[in-house]
Design brief:
The chain is mainly α. 58% of the residues lie in helices and 7% in strands. It contains 9 helices and 3 strands; from the N terminus they run ααβααββααααα. Strands 1-3-2 form a 3-stranded antiparallel β-sheet. 24% of the residues are buried.
Length: 199
């Protein structure tokens, strides 16, 4: 059986999570704040933990991360302490309140990160459905159904308004049924991130 491609990840896009559009500075800041909520971090630790959360497919470069950290300090969302040549960042009270106000956005960002990582991992299995399922937990028919849905909608991009309304009804019913069986959302922050009191 041919291994179905994940819904919007063409094979030639294997490295897109690494080299293409990843996350905005604001999204990266929210991920960093979520990690700092678990305890203080050095910059390199943040990079390592985001790489682990994405199964190795995404890690912000120092050139992307450190300006974000600097801006968080300027905004008062994070505090920084010098430890020789290294800097230790911790969440401020202001940052904690801001993070609480953005809890839903943080959840969505980490969900996107995990989902994108699974798509990358699926493709990396060289079209072996059994290996891809074992690596990601996704069944081939689940991936194929998502791809088929996206293709069906794409083919109807020029539908008239009557047809669009029919499709909206179908999609709304499908969403309602899917959400009825939705599991409780997992933790926004990767399980590997553990609370600690100091760097």
């Amino acid at each position: 059986m041919r291994n179905a491609q994940p819904d919007d990840m063409p094979a030639e896009g294997h490295a897109s999570l690494v080299r293409g559009r990843k996350f905005t500075a604001q999204e990266l800041a929210l991920m960093v704040l979520a990690l700092l909520q678990q305890g203080p971090r050095h910059g390199y630790e943040i990079i390592k933990e985001l790489k682990a959360a994405s199964l190795g497919f995404y890690s912000p470069s120092p050139g992307a991360l450190y300006p974000v950290l600097g801006q968080m300090v300027q905004q008062g969302h994070a505090l920084v302490e010098a430890e020789g040549k290294r800097k230790c960042y911790r969440l401020s009270d202001s940052g904690r309140r801001y993070l609480e106000s953005q809890a839903q956005a943080v959840q969505l960002i980490f969900t996107r990160l995990r989902h994108a990582a699974k798509k990358m991992l699926w493709i990396s299995q060289n079209m072996d459905p059994e290996a891809a399922t074992q690596a990601t937990g996704w069944l081939p028919e689940f991936v194929e159904a998502r791809r088929a849905m996206r293709s069906a909608l794409f083919a109807r991009s020029d539908a008239d308004q009557h047809e669009q309304r029919r499709l909206v009804d179908i999609l709304n019913r499908a969403v309602a049924e899917i959400e009825q069986g939705a599991p409780a959302p997992g933790p926004a922050v990767p399980a590997a991130a553990k609370r600690r009191d100091a760097c």
